[in-house]
Design goal:
26 strands, single chain, five-stranded mixed beta sheet, 4 domains, five-stranded antiparallel beta sheet, 13% helix
C-alpha cells in the first residue's frame, strides 16, 4: 500500500494538533502504514520426496509447489497451489546434455490435467528470409502456426496454477508429461519470443528469433518449435512421463464432522476401499467417490447429517461443484436430465452455448434426477481449442475419451 501525499499531509497536520501520547501513537501508526510492504510474507514452498531407484538421474525437471504462508491442509478442501517447474538438464548432478524441454501436461494424480500449453492465437504471422518470424497481434482469425507456451531452455522455469483437493493420510502424486528435445539440434529448431518490457504494454508486433541467435536471459513467454508449428502436425517424438510425490502436513478440521467419522457414516471402509474425499462448505456436505465411480454424500441439515446416494461420477467432477461465481456450478444438461425439472435459479452460461449455471439448490435436484435416471456424471471440456478451455459437469451430454464435448445441441 502506498500512502498518497495528501493523506500524509492530513495525518501530519492532525499529529501536530494532538497531545504527546497521541502523537507517539499516530507516529508509530504512520510508520507501520508506510512500511507495510516490507512485512509481506513469502509463500511456503514444498519439494517432492526423494525417490530411489534406477534412472532417477535422468529426471529432466525439478519441481516445487508454492502455497500462501499459513495455508492449512485439511482433508477434503481445495488448496490453490502454484507449481514451479525448472529445466534441470544443465544441472551437474543430472548427467545430461543441456537441452530444451517442452511441457505437454501437468496434473495431480487424481486431478484435472492442465494441458493447454500449445495454442493458436488471434493475429497474423510473417516468416522472414533471415529465419525470424514476426507475429502481428491485431488480427481476429487464429494464426496459421501454433505457439508453445511452456518451452523451457536449460535453467528456465515456469509457474503453473494447479489446485488440489487434499486427501487424508496419503502422498499426493504429481504427473508431468514433457518432451526432451534433441540436444544437438534444438537451437536450430526453436524460435524464442523477444522480451517485451512491462512498461511497453500493447505492442502489436512481436518478433521471434532462432534460439541459436537468442542469447538474452530475458524473453517472452512463447516459443515456436518446427515440429509443432503446423497446428495439425503430429510431433513424432516420445513423450516422457515424470512422477513426483509430495507430502503435506495434515491439519484437523474444526467445527464440522471430521473426515474419518464422515467416511464411516457414509458407509466407506476407510481401510480397504479406495476413494476420494471432498468437503463443499457452500453445500454443507461431504462427498465420497470410490474408484469404481460410485458416489455418496453426507449433507448437514441443522445438527444432523443426511446420507444421500448419488449417481456414478468421474472422480474429478466434485471439484467443479460451486466453482464459478457465487457458488454456481457450470453444467451441460441432456434432455433426459432436465425434462420436467423446475430449476428455480438456472441461468444461461455466458460463455458456453447451451450451458447453464446452477446454484447449490438446483444442483442437488440435478443430482437426485441423475441418480433416478442412472445418468453418469462426467467432466466435459466445452471448448478445448480455445486459449482457456472451459470445463463443465456433463449430465448425460456426450463427451469423448478426453472429455471433449461432442454434442453441442444437448
Amino acid at each position: 500500500m502506498i500512502m498518497q501525499p495528501e493523506l500524509v499531509q492530513k495525518v501530519m497536520s492532525g499529529l501536530l494538533q494532538t497531545k504527546w501520547k497521541q502523537k507517539v501513537f499516530f507516529l508509530f501508526s504512520l510508520i507501520f502504514i508506510l512500511t507495510a510492504p516490507c512485512f509481506s510474507e513469502e509463500p511456503t514452498s514444498y519439494s517432492p520426496k526423494v525417490l530411489d531407484g534406477p534412472g532417477i538421474n535422468e529426471v529432466v525437471l525439478k519441481s516445487t509447489v508454492l502455497v500462501s504462508k499459513g495455508q492449512k491442509f485439511v482433508a477434503g478442501e481445495r488448496v490453490n497451489f502454484k507449481l514451479n517447474l525448472r529445466n534441470a538438464t544443465s544441472d551437474q548432478d543430472r548427467n545430461l546434455t543441456p537441452t530444451a524441454v517442452v511441457i505437454r501436461s501437468v496434473r495431480w494424480q487424481y486431478g484435472t490435467p492442465e494441458n493447454n500449453f500449445r495454442t493458436q492465437l488471434p493475429g497474423e504471422v510473417q516468416e522472414n528470409q533471415n529465419g525470424t518470424i514476426r507475429f502481428i497481434t491485431t488480427g481476429l482469425e487464429p494464426t496459421k502456426i501454433s505457439f508453445e507456451k511452456a518451452l523451457l531452455r536449460p535453467g528456465e522455469e515456469k509457474e503453473i496454477e494447479l489446485p488440489l483437493t487434499i486427501q487424508p493420510h496419503t502422498t499426493h502424486g504429481l504427473v508431468v508429461e514433457c518432451i526432451l528435445l534433441d540436444a544437438e539440434k534444438w537451437k536450430n529448431e526453436v524460435l524464442i519470443e523477444e522480451y517485451i518490457s512491462p512498461k511497453s504494454p500493447g505492442k502489436v508486433v512481436v518478433d521471434f528469433y532462432p534460439a541459436a541467435q537468442f542469447h538474452s536471459e530475458k524473453r517472452g513467454s512463447l516459443a515456436i518449435w518446427d515440429k509443432t508449428k503446423n497446428p495439425k502436425a503430429q510431433e513424432g517424438i516420445a513423450i516422457k512421463t515424470l512422477q513426483f510425490e509430495f507430502e503435506f502436513p495434515e491439519d484437523a478440521r474444526t467445527g464440522v464432522l471430521n473426515v474419518k467419522d464422515a467416511a464411516r457414516r457414509a458407509g466407506i471402509d476407510i481401510v480397504n476401499e479406495s476413494y476420494l474425499t471432498f468437503y463443499k462448505l457452500p453445500m454443507k456436505a461431504w462427498f465420497f467417490v470410490r474408484d469404481d465411480n460410485r458416489a455418496v454424500a453426507l449433507k448437514q441439515i441443522d445438527e444432523d447429517w443426511k446420507y444421500i446416494e448419488l449417481p456414478k461420477m468421474d472422480e474429478r467432477v466434485v471439484d467443479e461443484f460451486g466453482a464459478y461465481g457465487e457458488n454456481m456450478t457450470r453444467v451441460l444438461l441432456s434432455s433426459k436430465a432436465r425434462k420436467g425439472l423446475l430449476l428455480k435459479h438456472k441461468a444461461q452460461d455466458p460463455i458456453i452455448p447451451n450451458g447453464f449455471l446452477v446454484n447449490t439448490e438446483d444442483l442437488w435436484q440435478l443430482l437426485e434426477r441423475a441418480r433416478e435416471q442412472k445418468i453418469d456424471l462426467t467432466l466435459a471440456v466445452a471448448n478445448p481449442t480455445d486459449t482457456n478451455p472451459e470445463r463443465a459437469v456433463s449430465f448425460g451430454v456426450q463427451v469423448d475419451a478426453h472429455g471433449v464435448w461432442l454434442d453441442p445441441n444437448c
